[in-house]
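Table 4 source record.
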Amino acid sequence: MHKIRAFVMMTVVLATSCSSPVWAKSTASEINRRPIIGVNVDVDGDKPRLFKVSAKYINAIKESGAIPLLLPPMNAEQLRQVLHGLDGVLMVGGADYPPDLYQQKTEPTTSLMDEERWRFDILLAKTVVEETEMPFLGICAGCQALNISQGGSLIQDIPTKLPEMKVAHASKDGWQTGFNVHEVTFEKGTKLKEIYKVDALSVPTSHHQCVEKLGKDLRVAARTADGLTEAVEMPGKRFVFGVQWHPERDFSANNKLFQNLVESAGAFMQRRHH
């Protein structure tokens, strides 16, 4: 395990030394004190196929004191090996997961993500939540992947399935073209409310799907004014959250969430190595 972690550390330093001198200037002991957060990637195009992720996710992790490590799609054996060198996982937003994953037929409004990505995302969420104790944070599609991986389901398109809903969850031109801002209210007694220490928060959002049936061991942590689920969490001491909004796009208002992810990852790292 220590050899794997050392290899991951070396990979991070070498990969960032060309583009980001901040980590390259750190000593080995300083790096060892920083938890490593794995971040999945989007898969785009086929000539050439690209693995990419918004810098806002990466910057949020770095600003919170951890080292981000990108996770391209891989098989289960490779993933389990890599997880030995990680202290937490952040799952990012993206397009739609296949509805057959939650026993529904695909609606015309559903925009499927790349197959290589969705297969890995579900594997990643399920493996981390069920086989490890490391912290997990899912954002937007990452929240949906968490719910699906635990046997939950989604509303495939809020505007067509729930036309009576008044809250705009994306820009007026659609979820693929921009963001909107709306308020979410935290459920009483939830860990997420304890993290944010407020009753409600205005959040940047861009989605047309949301959690319908909750996955195993998950509970609602926040809702919009019209009652839609905007966040889920796993009760207990462990850090497992999914938020439907995009906290990385308003770091100053959501820094406590990322800081708690990093603190939980640091605690997990300490428990594992002692």
